[in-house]
Amino acid sequence: MAENPEKPVLLHRQLNSTADYTEALDVLIGLARHRLRIFDYNLDDGGYTTLHRYELLRTFLLASRSNRLEIVLHDIDYLTRFCPRILSLFKQFSHAITIQETTPQAKSIYDPFAIADEACFLHRFHYDNPRALLALHDIEGSHVLIKRFEEIWAASVLAIAATTLGL
Questions:
Q1: Rounded to an integer, what distance in angstroms lies between the CA atom of residue 104 and that of residue 125?
Q2: 26 exposed, middle or buried (CB, 10 Å; 0-12, 13-18, 19+)?
Q3: CB–CB of 133/123 below 8 Å?
Q4: Is 58 within 8 Å of 32 (Cβ atoms)?
Q5: pLDDT by residue (tens digit) across 64-90?
Q6: Cα separation, 149 vs 121, whole angstroms
Q7: Could you tell me the pTM of the whole model?
């Protein structure tokens, strides 16, 4: 029986530096076609202040009105003070982006990760250490992190509103 040439090949790549992590995050965002989930301490690592990251996320959000970006952070201060491009995207695509902050019960989780759709992820083992794993076409591993993301999401609250209410 011949192998299916279109079947994606499982790939795991160990990462050992912040530069590798940032590059892998760009790869992951580029692979996302429908949904991107990001859990991080505060977005201060990983290139979120760069024009390149802004363009990658904007391209993802423009690809389809149904695309979704969900972000959960332990601390939103860095985002609100140093990530104006991300906040600009948030205002422009308020229908597609949700940003939440963890409640005290989830503050002890220290391993940031991002998941593209249902099959690719980037998992950093501790936010103070650049060691990470990039996994492409790993449905089983992705589903473990999706479940974990949903638990963290449930233990978080809406952090930023796209519009200001009032007169």
A1: 20
A2: middle
A3: yes
A4: no
A5: 999 999 999 999 999 999 999 999 999
A6: 12
A7: 0.91
**Nearest-angstrom CA–CA distance, 26 and 47:** 9
Q: Is the pLDDT assigned to residue 167 strictly greater than 90?
A: no
Joined together, the tokens standing for residue 13 give: 């790549």
- Rounded Cα–Cα distance for residues 7 and 76 (Å): 39
How crowded is residue 62: how many other Cβ atoms within 10 Å of its Cβ? Answer: 12
Strand runs (DSSP E) across 41-161, as ranges? 68-73, 97-102, 113-116, 120-126, 129-136, 156-158
Of 40, 41, 46, 44, nearest in space to 19 by CA: 46
Greatest Cα pair distance, the chain, in angstroms, is 68
- What six digits make up the tokens of 119? 């099959």
Residue 98 structure tokens: 């949700």
